[in-house]
Amino acid sequence: SCDSHETDSSHRKDDDSSVHGLSKKIVGVLGGGQLGRMLCQAASKMAIKVMVLDPSENCPASALAYDHMVGSFDDSATVEEFAKRCGVLTVETEHVDVATLEKLEQQGIDCEPKASTIRIIQDKYLQKVHFSRYGIPLPEFMEINNLEETKRAGELYGYPLMIKSKRLAYDGRGNAVAKSEGELSSAIDVLGGFGHGLYVEKWAPFIKELAVIVARGRDNSILCYPVVETIHKENICHMVKAPVDVPWRIRKLANDVAYKAISSLEGAGVFAVELFLTRDGQILLNEVAPRPHNSGHHTIESCYTSQFEQHLRAVVGLPLGDPSMKTPAAIMYNLLGEDEGEPGFKVAHQLIARALEIPGATAHWYDKTEMRRQRKMGHVTLVGPSVGVLEARLKSMLREEGYENL
Ligand code: ATP
Ligand code: MG
Ligand code: MG
Fold first, then answer.
1. Would you give the distance in Å from CA 255 to the centre of its chain?
2. pLDDT given at position 402
3. Whether 275 contacts 212, CB under 8 Å
4. pTM exceeding 0.80
5. What is the ipTM of this complex?
6. What is the pLDDT of residue 399?
7. How does DSSP assign 39-52, residue by residue?
8. Which positions of the chain have pLDDT values less than 70?
9. What is the Cα–Cα distance from 317 to 62, expressed in whole angstroms?
10. Which ligand is nearest to the CA of 293?
11. How many secondary structure helices (H) and strands (E) does the chain include?
12. Which residues contact ligand 1 via a Cβ below 6 A?
């Protein structure tokens, strides 16, 4: 992290493009986690400069960014100061100070995607209201303000009942399941009570979870990545298989729903659309992320244009790249935090060492200074001839240490 770089030239819209490589604009990213880090990796190949704003001195993106401003992406004055140094502002998290982004847009600062999009998405209830207005299929949902309303929702939707925080949710933190009416009040307590805003969703009896990364360029061109299957454990993404093994009709439907959902939002960039496939062949939208996403990490090795390169192309106004797969299949396996501290790091590093023995495997380590249980520490992507072959290779990688089963 350094603040000594000469960055204010980025504000001169007519400056010589050779100064900043492919793009005249320095890309400012709110957030410096693993997504910001992988954006920096993609940027370096294209001679695009990325600055990140993150409160943590040692955040994953810090070492690879052109510049790192240490500060909160949820603080108005900090975001304003950061924005002045960048040619275009984007995000690696939706949990940013959106009122400031709206203000900056009015002052002519370029935010991609648009602040209006981030406002809708960062409140999952508002997001659901928005998509239902656009006729996107969703699990039924309703706002809850007290226990009485929650009980009524339970009677209407049945159990298990999914209770969700409207805001600040990620990796399942913010979700609680009540298996019966008796569990409602403890589930609500787990989410910190009604104070911060809760809503309920009818349980989606899915047979698979799917995801589609959708890219929109500044010229409004839209391209979809191949539909993948995401496998979650305890509400957190555990593995991704690409492409998904479902009939063509389902892939088409998933693509259509994703395309329609993103068409209803404003701004350039990549978006992730999380979907449920139900037994009767319906596709329901779970949620959208206005940024690169865990379900698209495999694209680094498996697609002609990775989701990170695509996001940068989109926000700076370069032509979108080819999102199709250049390998028949890919599996992405998340390295989630185990024990706190040293023992946890040892397990993760052993898995990486084993990954290096697997043909077609690539390890990604995010360089987080602290390990917490279920925290995303890194991932491994396997590419090869078929998902079946890759499942066998992954199994051999996970053979011991509680990693014998998938
Ligand atoms: P992310 O890290 O993707 O932002 P999140 O914290 O926002 O996750 P959700 O995507 O809302 O959480 O839910 C996490 C997981 O919980 C889903 O991927 C799915 O497995 C399960 N889930 C969510 N909503 C429902 C539902 N209505 N019915 C059944 N399962 C659900
Ligand atoms: Mg989410
Ligand atoms: Mg999700």
1. 18
2. 59
3. yes
4. yes
5. 0.98
6. 81
7. HHHHHHHTT--EEE
8. 1-23, 400-406
9. 25
10. 1
11. 12, 17
12. 139, 162, 164, 169-172, 174-175, 201, 203-204, 209, 232, 235, 274, 286-287
Place of tokens 């960062």: 122
Three-state DSSP at 10 gives: helix
Contacts of 51 (CB under 8 A, 6+ apart): 7, 26, 27, 28, 29, 65, 66, 67, 68, 69, 82, 85, 86
Half-sphere CA count of 128, side-chain side, radius 13 A: 20
Locus of tokens 């209006």: 116
Task: Cite the DSSP H helix spans in 211-341.
Answer: 248-263, 299-302, 307-316
CA neighbor of 230 nearest in space, from 250, 206, 247, 253:
206
Backbone angles phi, psi at 256, to 5 degrees: -65, -45
Tell which one of 175, 190, 228, 232 to mutate to probe ligand 1, the residue whose CB is within 8 A of the most ligand atoms: 175
Determine the pLDDT at residue 21.
59
Res 306: pLDDT: 98
Distance 376 CA to ligand 1 centre (A): 16
pLDDT at 22: 65
What per-residue confidence (pLDDT) applies to 25? 87
Residue 28 token pair: 């400012």
What 74-78 contacts at long range (C-beta under 8 Å, 24+ apart), as own/partner pairs, is: 76/100, 76/103, 78/53
pLDDT of residue 170: 79
| Cα 374 to Cα 171: distance, rounded to the nearest angstrom | 9
In the reported structure, the alpha carbon of residue 82 is separated from the centroid of ligand 2 by a whole-number distance in angstroms of 25
Q: Tell me the one-letter amino acid at 403.
A: Y
d(CA 307, CA 295): 10
